[in-house]
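Posting this for the archive.
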Amino acid sequence: MKAFGRYGSLGFELLGSIAVGYYGGSWLDRKLGTRWIAFVGFLVGCYAGFRALYKASKRMQRDIENEEALERGEDPWANKPRVEPRDEPEESRDDNRS
């Protein structure tokens, strides 16, 4: 239920950002006597809405990983060890190139 409340409004957020961008640009068009600001507002609203979706998807992925760690009995908020890249072993290198 907690996740539904957190992520259930994303569709409204996307539509709201697009609408605010478009109607704000349309209002500026009427005030300034132009015809292109509404389109720019629409594009800015699309960018803002999809950026919010992207951030929410990253947050959702992190929440799912934390829940899975809790199910395994791990502490999801503990500092995770850094994994250093390993050097390739000598015998796997191909030094005999022609």
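The mean pLDDT is 83. Residues 7-74 form one domain.
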